[in-house]
Amino acid sequence: MNPQTAAMLARDIGAGLAxxxxxxxxxxxxxxxxxxxxxxxxxxxxxxxxxxxxILGFALTEAVALYxxxxxxxxxxx
Amino acid sequence: xxxxxSIDALxxxxxxxxxxxxxxxxxxxxxxxxxxLTAVLVLALFGYGMRTRALIPGRTQxxxxxxxxxxxxxxxxxxxxxxxxxxxxxxxxxxxxxxxxLVGLFPYFFAFTSHIAVTxxxxxxxxxxxxxxxxxxHKLHFFTYFMPAGAPKLLAPxxxxxxxxxxxxxxxxxxxxxxxxxxxxxxxxEVFAGFxxxxxxxxxxxxxxAGVIPLAINVVLVGFELLVAGxxxxxFAVLTCLYLHDAVHLH
Lengths: 78, 251
Description:
The structure holds two protein chains of two kinds.
Chain A: H1 3-18, H2 22-42, H3 47-77
Chain B: H1 20-26, H2 30-49, H3 59-79, H4 87-105, H5 116-138, H6 156-210, H7 212-249
């Protein structure tokens, strides 16, 4: 195997490993919306206020998933 | 094993000079053109929308008023006392990023928020503003922000560096969040479009039928990208308001 192919192989493996990081964000986002649904079920009147916080939390957690995806893209295409 | 036809996912973010020879002379890029278009669209929405000034608004005026009230309510709720001074800045920021993201969704238009230079500039402006506001309002008392009240003084050598680090990571996270969201969305589009073409080219008649699957995924992604465009503008504005609240009220 020449160094060229080895480098391409290593790059692809690295990109795959980096993408594993998005799993944590999946768990986190599920947690946020589970808390959102529970709290709205407890107190339906608080829906508007809690929904805003829930969406903010979702976006912040999604950002972490995207950091991992960004590293993966940088390895694969950069 | 040789690599098959590769998909050029990042080439779409390349800057090119627009507006022909005039643009090439001053290096007016496609990103600049998109920003100009964004500014014109925002001004059009609010300029033409509020032109009639009817007590009972028509559609455009209602849209403009809803946008205004949304950001005003956001500032009022989060910044609290003295929100009026920061409202024009947050308003401009929110609508610039929102319309910038939305303009980038259209084919052959450029998403200028997909460049880390643009998002980093916006984040550094927000960060710098929060520091300047904090220092001007509280002078040296501003630095007590890094020692949370009610924490035991013994933990200060541990807590203060962590707090400072968290504070310094704000422009980094703010810029990368917006940049990575927009880039990821556009790269996904490009990749699935590439799949569609590869499948159609490789498998002939079956390939063209099978190419409908990546196309369907791309259609779903359009909806998702619309959500992300709005959401990321909202998150940027909310975090700006939060940082300004911290600077003004120091807790």
